[in-house]
């Protein structure tokens, strides 16, 4: 500027404003949360006034056009900082006004080395601002414009542009090209990060995932990340890949999350009084990542089951042989498949991630041994997640984790050929679910209580079916097996009835019309109870007749309900078809049994 002393004073004011805004503001008291931000704003307004004065319009020895361009850029920097300042103090309209002034001042020169980084950062902040207002489409426009500008600049110029703060630095303080490039790439990474969120809001899920992956990759490349936040974002992204059954990509994200998260513990807390809370937060985040691993193992096993089961839900040996032969052919393409995954990080980091990946397969297991290996990894993460999410304090989270553990046992049992061992796996499920159900207050946890009732009923039902199958292999049913079948059937009925009772109104009346979310479970419960009464074994003819009558009543309920509410048919087509069949057959069987029981007169 005209006088070196005045220019030095201006630069000092600017530095002080940045310090107040970025450093001192973190120490502001709770009753004055924006004290330092307001102090920074005053300094920025002073700089703005000086730049707008006539004296500032002239630069010593510089042509008028060059002086005007210099002043415009300096003003744009100040308008940008004022825009950010107002936004951070929740004054969005004023923030928008300053940010728009910044972009207007730079419009003609936005592709120059002096202006491109500042222009992109202004557009990023306008995108955030409109996103906070809930105007996601407007936010998308600003952010996509910033993305396009970056691409155009890199194509047409590509040299590291000036960082906005450099405009208020002395020549000897200016940044190296390496540092400029790092800061410019960081600004562009922010563009992609915010676009990922915008696409998520607009339910452009695939595009959101793509941008999230690119953002994570760039954050590692330019060392612009917080380990815990990065790891959580990577673990969250893994769950998107799970929905697409992209197990390789999902596993890579989770392995990367583990490796990067391990860096978090290496950073000591700056304030001792925060250490305990910091450690608590770290334990929680670690447990959250563990839960994502549980979902990975569970989904991989469930996907395998889906590809191997026959039309009655049992393992199909022919399909199993076919898939094993197919896998051998695909071994050579394994390396090509690996390249489909977008690898994270430098070569050293990649090695650590790949080592972590080797602990679990990303290929669907095809037999019990392979399934067990995936199961054990999932089970280890269950124990890790439960260490933090304990029943006392995290009821909902704890129960969800135990339900996932139960689901892991359920899908592992599918691969087990021995019925007795399979039965024991289901017994493990009962042992983990039943105590939780007993301790749960349904008044506060009705939905979870219903889930547990239904799952316990289903598990006892499955065990009863297995015991019947074991009994069918015997020449004659022994009293122990009969007792076991009846006991399991009665326990299944008990929990199905508890579930159905939970649907009754305060006067204990069952609803005439069921809500959509409980329609299928309620009908399945009725159908299974009907079938269970038909499975009860008794030598007492009268008792047998009573069981058949009860069975008929439940089958009839399904048929009658669907006649009154035809829209329900679609939800329970198979069960309805079998119920109609039984409603037709049971009366005849009952008449025959009555005839046997009635002595000749």
Automatic annotation (TrEMBL):
Activator of KIF1B plus-end-directed microtubule motor activity. Required for organization of axonal microtubules, and axonal outgrowth and maintenance during peripheral and central nervous system development. Belongs to the KIF-binding protein family. GO terms for cellular component: cytoskeleton; mitochondrion. The gene is KIFBP. This is KIF-binding protein. SMART domains: TPR (SM00028). InterPro entries: KBP, TPR-like_helical_dom_sf, TPR_rpt. Residues 317-337 are annotated as: Disordered. One of its GO terms (molecular function) is kinesin binding. Keywords: Cytoplasm, Cytoskeleton. It is found in: Cytoplasm, Cytoskeleton. Residues 317-336 have a biased composition (Basic and acidic residues). GO terms for biological process: central nervous system projection neuron axonogenesis; microtubule cytoskeleton organization; mitochondrion transport along microtubule; neuron projection maintenance.
